[in-house]
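Q: What would this complex look like in 3D?
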Amino acid sequence: MSEIMAPSGRKLSGESDRNLLARIVGGDEAALSELYDRFAATLFSVAFRVSGERADAEEIVLDSFAQAWREAGKFRQERGSVVAWLCMICRSRALDLVRARRRRERLGDQAGSGASEARAAPAMGQLDGADHEMERSERCWVVAHALQALPGPQRQAIELAYYEGLSQSEIADRLGEPLGTVKTRVRAAMQKLRDALRPYYFEPNL
Amino acid sequence: MSEPTGGPGRVLDLAPGYALGALTPEEARAFEHELARSPELQRELAEYREVCALLATASGVIPPPALKTRLMDRVREDKAVSLTQRRAEARERRRGILPRLVVGAVLAAAVILAVGYRQQAARLRASLRGADSTLAERTSRLAAREAELNAILEPAVQLVTLTTAGTASPVVQVFWDRKNNVALLHSFQLKPASAGRAYQLWLLPRQGDPIASAVFNTGADGRGLVSGIPIPDPRITGFALTEEPASGSPRPSSAPFLVGLAGTP
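A: Here is my prediction, written as structure tokens for the whole assembly.
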């Protein structure tokens, strides 16, 4: 018995992400609910990876979707997909939180610090669709392996930039490497990731 | 135009760093200056932003279910507040007097539009009736497929991944429902078997020979899906994949090229 998955199997409904966002502009809660179902795991993943705390990650995801609800009209489709826009909001909020926490720590206030929780295992029963789960699982595997396939210094540069929010100059300082070297690594790594991940874009028409 | 980064080619090189938010403020400004007028740069940036979004998926954590309830509660509160504000603004507006001429013109235009819309609505209704029957058929097919696939959402399901090294290497994921002794196989990056051949899944028992299981093939996109695979022995230790004749084999005819160990549940 064999059956081929539809390439568009990701969608929980057939409606495009952009349509959902257009409905959100009109105040449609059901559209927000579906957008959440589609991308909450992705946003939670980046919020948790950046912040290192589940409780913080929850607040970041909550704030990110609330911001998307308020500012859906600001989305510009020529600048990328809906999920890329949501991830930018989420990552930016997560990095802000981490930077604020670092500032507090530097001031000797330990209120924002704490031991990181162990990474939670994916609980499949909490997702809304089997298609969604299979695609998430596939994407997770492919991205992790694309990162793993990068030369160590390139992977390190990407991780410092993406998950710690460091600029290329800060990465150069942190690693004691020339700025030009870091820029070359970042660019080369992103080009390799783009080539490896193109079949897995959330927005296939890019 | 000032071109502090050395021309359009160099600006293009800034796209990965810009998407990551890792440029200096000067570089970011130079990039944004060019971005506004360059569709090529916009496409390039859209791709790198997609890469950034994908980087977010590298860890497998998921949010607790209660988070969605909190979001929807917050949004309803925002909506209520904003509705109150809008009503107050509307009351303010009503205090102004609209010129009667404008009102008349708007009403006349509305009548013309209504006639046009009625004709258009009749055409749309006819086209909808045709679409309805196609939709009903597709909905029924989708419901059947969904029922099959939902098996992987059971709490007792364990995911076993069969793979080799390399990013473009084939991957087979087996969602093993230990409670109901069935599994679902999902493959990607697995090119179709050669003519007259197929792929065969093998169950690896703790002791003894591999147990023959599902025979399948993939589509041109490298994807394949097999549901309802019986797992007769709950003590199996893993899964393996070989290429066999299209009808399958009672025992593997070659060494498996993909293996995944189940471990303990």
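A: To summarize the key features: Residues 129-206 of chain A form a domain with the Arc Repressor Mutant, subunit A fold (CATH 1.10.10.10). The helical segments of chain A are 17-25, 29-51, 54-71, 82-106, 130-148, 152-162, 168-175, 179-197.
Q: Very helpful, thank you.
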